[in-house]
Design goal:
It contains 10 helices and no strands. It is an all-alpha fold. The chain has one domain.
Length: 207
């Protein structure tokens, strides 16, 4: 009982806001809206509730077991980030070039809730890496509350995506989609090159 009370007493509004802002920036659910709309235009299904719950589970799970989980498969965060960057690159190419790369052959493949919405758009390599790094700066309670607050925001954006699409004109959405597609390309290239450099450096260092 005392341990629970001590845990709750670690709440700090400044830490909570700091963790929330950092996670909000890296998740960027508002900026991801064009991607979500584009996915829905392609006939793929996105469940706001499932995406939010899965994201919450992945965030909390990776926060406490991320490094141990990756080590089980002899992987590191850099390798994980490279894999995520490739998926982001493919999504960006779809947006910029108006092509369909993800094939839709059955009902399972038609569900975009987990891939690519949850991973890597919401709970991607960037957000996982961020969670591991901010644990040294903020207490667990404040990070957990920041995660929950961001997941709630994710739910409302996903749930309201079609309404937001109606508010915005098709021309604005198209421009927004192309612009964010180019930004995604840049992010994926940076994520790929920076983490690939770390991997190559580790390989060279071992020789």
């Amino acid at each position: 009982m005392n341990s629970i009370i001590n845990f709750l007493q670690t709440f700090n509004m400044s830490q909570f806001m700091g963790a929330f802002v950092v996670l909000f920036a890296i998740i960027d659910i508002v900026g991801t809206l064009p991607v979500i709309i584009n996915i829905q235009h392609n006939g793929r299904v996105i469940s706001a509730s499932r995406a939010s719950l899965i994201s919450l589970f992945l965030f909390v799970g990776f926060m406490y077991m991320g490094e141990a989980f990756l080590s089980l498969f002899n992987l590191d965060v850099s390798s994980f980030a490279v894999a995520g960057s490739i998926i982001v690159f493919v999504i960006a190419m779809e947006m910029v070039l108006d092509i369909s790369i993800f094939r839709q052959e059955n009902s399972v493949g038609n569900d975009a809730t987990f891939t690519p919405v949850v991973f890597p758009l919401i709970a991607g390599a960037g957000s996982f890496t961020t969670l591991l790094s901010i644990r040294s700066q903020y207490s667990d309670l404040n990070i957990l509350l920041a995660i929950i607050a961001n997941v709630i925001l994710v739910y409302f954006v996903l749930k309201s995506s079609k309404k937001l699409e109606k508010i915005l004109s098709p021309g604005v959405i198209c421009i927004f989609q192309k612009a964010f597609g180019i930004i995604l390309l840049s992010i994926s290239v940076k994520l790929f090159t920076s983490n690939l450099t770390l991997i190559v450096g580790e390989i060279v260092g071992r020789q």
